[in-house]
Amino acid sequence: MDEHNHHIRHEKNLKLAFILTLCVLATEFFGAIISKSMALYADSGHIFVDASSLLLAWIAQSQIKKEPTAKNTYGFHRLGILTALLNSALLLIISIVLMYESYLRLIHPEIVNSKLMILFASISFIINIIIGFKIYKDIHQNLNIKSSFFHIIGDSIISFSIIVAGILIYLTRLYYFDAIIGLFVAPIIAIGAFSVINETINILLEAVPKEIDYIKVQEKILEIEGVKNVHDLHIWSLSKSFILLSSHVLIDDKIKDSADLCCIINNIQYMLSKKFKINHAVIQPELTMCKNDNGYCVAHQI
After folding, report:
1. Looking at the domain that runs over 2-204, which CATH code has it been given?
2. Concatenated DSSP letters for 191-212?
3. Domain locations in the chain?
4. Closest to 9 in 3D by CA, of 129, 127, 136, 153
5. Most buried of 2, 53, 110, 198 (most Cβ within 10 A)?
């Protein structure tokens, strides 16, 4: 039920972020037209991509709620991961384009209405801060929202850089200030994109989540009374907040009663849930060691 409530909150926050981002897009595009600011035009294009990514994230989050099917037995959790990867790839491309555009502006500065530039960039900055605060609490539970959050951070930094550039242009009439700030902003956006790309690739490769200590999990399972050995242990995740585990455990041969066996399995699953936040653990008890083939247990006849 708690997981379900998280999904509902994530979806509502993404919907609100999308609507507010559309407001930012309309504001900046209108401001670009009347101020003739190429910086605002460029940022409008950036925000349009962000609005598209938020729409994709919103759609993906709504798909997560769908029940598993005979074909998709784990449901659609990975849809959010794929969307986060796409969002971050777009963000990386945006940062490269921003560096290139900033370089061109440095060589060929253009005259702009600095007062209107400051006004519309300020409105955009304030709305982006509101969006960022709204979705920040969910970034550690949902990679899709984390990716969208970095989009918002990128928007905020760019809006702030346009404000600073507008003030400097107003005071000095030197129009290349926005280009200089843009060259500093782009790498910051790229770092955020690389962070999410790395995390999504690890999930798609079914690597052990970085917050989980594989050896520690093994040790804790062995501490459960009645467990003699842990092997064929696998830990992976479907999404940022949905961690899974499967393992074979060799049970003490003194354990004869099926009720005691069930108790051991329940104790393992409870410990994994409380200590490591592993939501779904499949434990296969064994009375004799299974045959091993390159680290994996294989079926054999007893």
Report:
1. 1.20.1510.10
2. HHHHHHHHHHHHHHTTPPPTT-
3. 2-204, 214-298
4. 136
5. 53
Q: Which two tokens stand for residue 142?
A: 């949902």
For the chain, the distance separating the N- and C-terminal CA atoms, rounded to the nearest angstrom, is 42
**Quick one: pLDDT at residue 271?**
96
Per residue in 38-78, pLDDT (tens digit) is 778 777 777 776 777 677 667 666 766 777 888 888 887 78
The values of phi and psi at residue 173, to 5°, are: 65, 25
- Provide the token pair at 143: 């990679």
CA distance 20 to 7: 20
Q: Where are the beta strands (DSSP E) in the chain?
A: 227-239, 242-251, 280-286, 291-293, 296-298
* Whether the domain at 2-204 and the domain at 214-298 fall into the same CATH topology: no
Q: How far apart are CA 57 and CA 150, in angstroms?
A: 13
Parallel, antiparallel, or unpaired: how do β-strands 242-251 and 227-239 relate?
A: antiparallel
Burial (0-12, 13-18, 19+ Cβ within 10 Å), 141: middle
Classify residue 98 by burial, with Cβ atoms within 10 Å: 0-12, 13-18, 19+.
buried
Q: With respect to CATH, is domain 214-298 assigned 3.30.70.1350?
A: yes
